[in-house]
Amino acid sequence: MPRRLSPDERKIWGRVAATAKAINPPRQDEVDAPGEPVAPKRRALPKIAQNAQSAAVSFGGGLKPANTLDGSWDKRIAKGALEPDFSIDLHGETLSSAHARLNRSLAAAIRAGARVVLLITGKAAQGNPRLPPTTRGVIRASVKDWLAASSHSGHIAAIRNAHPRHGGAGALYLILRRAR
Question: What is the architecture of the domain spanning 47-176?
Answer without folding.
Answer: 2-Layer Sandwich (3.30)
